[in-house]
Amino acid sequence: MDYKESLSYLESLNVFGSKLGLSRIERLVELLGHPERRYGTIHVTGTNGKGSVSAMTAAILTKSGLRTGLYTSPHLVSYTERFVIDGEQASEADFAAAIAAAKEAADKMLAEGLEQPTEFEVLTAAAFFYFARKHVDYAIVEVGLGGLLDSTNVITPEVAVVTNVAMEHADRCGGTLEGVAQHKAGIIKAGVPVVTAAEGMTLDVVRRKAEEEGADIFVLGEDFAVLPMKQAAGMIEFSSELLGIRAAHYALALGGAYQRRNAALAVMAAELLAGTHPSITHENIAAALRSAAWPGRFERFTLDGKRIIIDGAHNPAGAAALRESLDAAFADEARVLLIGILEDKDYRSMLKTLLRAGDRVVVTPPMSLRAGDPENLARAAREITADVEVVENAQAALERALSLTDERHILCAAGSLYLIGNLRCLLLERGARHDG
């Protein structure tokens, strides 16, 4: 199987949709010889920030001399982005070989009369296989959806991280915010420490599950804290009396005010491993956070003197985090927003959070069957600001948004990662440069 054939096979699995449950993945990894048991893991879930936390945690372990895999979803451009070791994406040949191994196991399941695994289950099993084949010491594993019944939940990690809990995917996670929290908390295993930034009722759910499992829980704002350093933009101060850390200062490569909390979670998770791995030092953590990359999250570019932000804010909590970051960095700037949101998201709430009266808005549909009619998004946007137009093609939409942007404006492209990945490629093809 070559790379093209592996993509065709994955595409063929889309007809099976998304099915929560562990029976298929459990048999799949069993037939592969349980590759997920051949290295340590850190399991990361949450409504927002789990990708950033995963990327920063992986960077810390890599900088500390530990060979580290990173499994995330979805990808922005290429499937190979989902399988990363020490910052390097899998080659197309290695990706195809891992998918071929997972397909062979899936075919055996069909021969046994079992149900066909889904695309995500095959990808997850292939990632576990790939990391074992490449002899990683650790794999940082990001949950796909929820946690309790997610395909990744066949691992027993050394640390579990629950970034936050907000209302998303409720139709598949219990129907209520409490139900969503219960699904997120489902990654907590007996005796495995938990790091979380959950708050209020959702924290109560996570804390209760940790108590049931006899797992120590470390809560942001209680057991560790993070503060911005006003005298230095992009710097944070991490502290934890519990760990004897009073004021550790770190510079963050990842932009956006929300990355402070994500960095604190990554640092805390890494510190919990430091007793076993003394190479996880303040110096290595600092070096990792200065260089960690996670494309499409408050990523800053310049193109022909125009300032551009792209951010995959694809739900209300993400929109709130993006608005906070925009207000902190560009409070007095006029804004052009290029937006594409999937129809099944709470786009009205997102727009009310993100848009200001007087903002210029260009709406374009993401490349997804779930994109819906962009006119619906435009009508909702016009309830907040009058200057809204629809451009059906992403490339043409980018051209239009750039034409509306001058030295007085910030151009912010936001919404679905299906759109953000496309726009990011278009910007780089035009010669856009990273800014800071």
How would you portray this structure in words?
Helix content is about 40%, strand content about 20%. The radius of gyration is 21 Å and the shape is globular. The chain has two domains: about 5-290, UDP-N-acetylmuramoyl-L-alanine:D-glutamate ligase (3-Layer(aba) Sandwich), CATH 3.40.1190; about 300-435, Protein-Tyrosine Phosphatase, Chain A. It is α/β, with parallel strands linked by helices. The protein contains 14 helices and 18 strands. Helix 1 packs across helix 4 (about 90-110). The mean pLDDT is about 95. It has an eight-stranded mixed β-sheet with strand order 4-3-2-5-1-6-7-8, sandwiched between helices. Strands 16-15-14-17-13-12-18 form a seven-stranded mixed β-sheet, with helices on both faces.
Give me the secondary-structure topology.
Blueprint: H1 3-12, H2 23-31, E1 40-45, H3 50-63, E2 68-71, E3 83-85, E4 88-89, H4 92-111, H5 119-133, E5 138-142, E6 159-162, H6 177-185, E7 194-196, H7 200-212, E8 217-219, E9 225-228, E10 235-240, E11 245-251, H8 259-274, H9 282-291, E12 299-303, E13 306-311, H10 316-329, E14 334-340, H11 347-354, E15 360-363, H12 374-382, E16 388-390, H13 394-403, E17 409-415, H14 417-429, E18 433-434
Parallel strand pairs: 1-5, 1-6, 2-5, 6-7, 7-8, 13-17, 14-15, 14-17, 15-16
Antiparallel strand pairs: 2-3, 3-4, 9-10, 10-11, 12-13, 12-18
Helix pairs in contact: 1-4, 2-4, 2-5, 3-8, 3-9, 4-5, 6-7, 10-11
